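Minutes, project huddle
Topic: does the predicted pose make sense with arabinose-5-phosphate bound?
PN asked that the exact inputs be recorded in the minutes so nobody has to dig through chat later. Recorded below.
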Amino acid sequence: MDLEALKREAAARALAEVTPGMKLGLGTGSTARHFVDLLGAKVAAGFPVLCVSTSEVTQAQASGLGIPMSTLEETPALDLTVDGADEIGPGLALVKGGGGALLREKIVASASKRMIVIADETKVVDTLGRFPLPVEVVPFGLAATTAMVRDVCRSLGLSDAARLRPGKDGHPFVTDGGHLILDLDLKAIPDPAALAGRLTAIPGVVEHGLFIGLADLAVVATRTGITTLTRR
Ligand code: A5P
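Predicted holo structure (tokens), as shared on screen:
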């Protein structure tokens, strides 16, 4: 079975957790895309939900499928968010933001009673950090902020390799919120909470891609079937 089929299986399993009338957060990325597709088919058959998206891309997909959409302004408390992840580590700590939507993803997940992560088996790791950690920063003071981020990494004994994420046509990638992304090539993050706290304390950092204590359940599709992991 190829990876796309595994992602779709995880999405289908998560869809079973959605009950009529739920207020749902919709994630971003190729796995979340499958979930939105499957939800769209269910909505077309008459299933009632109200959704908030974590990116402009997901907003366009969901609206195109006729899924009723809201905003956190109109609907500030959600029942459930279903999203993908770049890495799933011990305690369901996640690295997210490979698609650049980490800020809205974290806001939406934080506004939800539950978060379910959907993934194929390649995303589960013993230690976070093999996937470069995205850090969303404001454009003002970029060089100074980058230096502070690198200092933090060094002081924690981590690699200080940080690169500005490139976008199209030689310009930097710009997030939905108008920010830039530094990708930190850390290789391993032995203490995600310590790094998260230090990054958050840097004024030019808007948010980082470490999601700690947010995911309640991970639905992981493997070649031999679905595995579920719980935080507690
Ligand atoms: C988007 O910013 C990310 O957090 C995605 O949720 C994450 O990168 C997973 O994406 P895939 O499902 O495409 O691997």
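Observations noted during the meeting:
- The mean pLDDT is 97.
- The longest strand covers residues 112-120.
No decisions taken; revisit at the next huddle.
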